[in-house]
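PROTOCOL LOG
Step 1. Enter all chains and additional molecules of the complex.
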Amino acid sequence: MKANLVSFLSGIVFAIGLGISGMTRPAKVIGFLDFAGAWDLSLAFVMFGAIGVFFVAYRRTRKMRAPLLAAQFSLPTRTDIDAQLILGAAIFGAGWGLGGFCPGPAITSLASGATPVVVFVAAMAAGIYLHAMVQNLGRSRPAPLTVASVDS
Amino acid sequence: MHNFTPLAALIGGILIGLSASAMLLLEGKIAGISGICAGVLNPAKGDTAWKAAFIAGLLAGGLLLRIFLPAAFDFGIIRPYGMLMIAGLLVGFGTRLGNGCTSGHGVCGISRLSARSMVATMTFIASGALVVYLVDHVLGGAR
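Step 2. Run joint prediction.
Step 3. Record the structure below.
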């Protein structure tokens, strides 16, 4: 229960950070990706700020046996760089540039009630289900693929 | 760069970092939004409540923005519906195939010095820039 409250409050802070930073505005996102136009470097500073803080927090975990409210850390374990990683990131980036939204800002922006955001999020959910279907097809083949479930 | 807003971006980034740090230090979880979304859409027993609570927090934070910082939803550019549908599909599918998005790879992964996340982040920024170039400079823009 306490952990779910932490998740809820963290979600609120995350959304406010997205809103203040400009990540909820496709004009800023597309401006950041528009190297050939009026390039707007602002969103690089979102990464500097977030990485600066999280880098320190992650270093801190090395001295901890367990997180404060859970039995263990659940961290990504994969280190291989495979075709799925690169293809997936390339597909995601294409959608990010095309729409101007990535998942967090899109969900946060649902609160605006704007129809285009609802359309984007519905399509994003469809994309997630489509991937799950494709993955299941792979699993039902005679020689099953090993699909790592660890998320970064 | 007439729209350059580094201070707001930095402050927002710090808040995002604090949120992700709270998830890590208190719950031991990585705040990767695409993975959290997928976990809510395809629930696994015992690992869904925290994800649903986080998404509820994003929505509640969105409502606070709507009240106190409505400029956060001055989208500026809204692509046509057809393009948004394709974009959403690509974002949903691509983040699952590549195991993460801007938060999981771009923030948490890079901070952990994960080579996977560094490669993923460079890749999605490059492909995003390529698509923006094609849409806004070759095809004349759809805004």
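Step 4. Note key features.
Chain A has a mean pLDDT of 92.
Chain A touches chain B through 120 residues (CB under 8 Å).
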